[in-house]
């Protein structure tokens, strides 16, 4: 089975041009990246690099697998962007229960600060619902 993480690693090595540069980008040691490549070679039963006096020479198998790694990276990046866009457009509801005096004096500045910190494309609506008259409290929903 082909591990998408290993494919992404090969694409990163190809992009950076060396194991050391890829290790630096991943915040790993070069030895850790070398171990992962060796594990991939054993798992796929194909050499991915041939060591020489000036570093590693890449094989055709590694180039093929790295191209699939780029596809995995692109799909992963697209999924992350779409999820962030979806989460940014979700309608959230904030329920606040308070006494009328507190609602009159404390809620306006708090809601103004909330609106400035988390702006929405549509203006939020505020709904008041008086609770039982015996408690003298109100409930509001800000959507």
Automatic annotation (TrEMBL):
Keywords, sorted A to Z: DNA-binding, Transcription, Transcription regulation
Molecular function (GO) terms for this protein are: DNA-binding transcription factor activity; transcription cis-regulatory region binding
Region: Disordered, residue numbers: 118-143
Q: Where is the HTH lysR-type domain?
A: 2-59
Record family assignment: Belongs to the LysR transcriptional regulatory family.
What's the protein name?
Answer: DNA-binding transcriptional LysR family regulator
Q: Which organism is it from?
A: Streptomyces echinatus
């Amino acid at each position: 089975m082909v591990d998408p993480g290993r494919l992404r690693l090969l694409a990163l090595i190809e992009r950076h041009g060396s194991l050391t540069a890829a290790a630096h980008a991943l915040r790993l040691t070069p030895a850790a990246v070398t171990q992962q490549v060796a594990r991939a070679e054993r798992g796929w039963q194909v050499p991915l690099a041939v060591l020489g006096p000036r570093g590693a020479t890449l094989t055709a198998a590694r180039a093929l697998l790295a191209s699939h790694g780029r596809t995995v990276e692109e799909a992963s990046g697209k999924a992350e962007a779409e999820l962030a866009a979806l989460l940014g457009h979700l309608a959230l509801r904030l329920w606040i229960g308070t006494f009328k005096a507190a609602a009159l004096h404390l809620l306006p500045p708090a809601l103004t600060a909330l609106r400035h910190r988390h702006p929405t494309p549509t203006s939020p609506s505020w709904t008041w619902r008086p609770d039982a008259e015996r408690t003298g409290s109100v409930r509001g929903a800000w959507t």
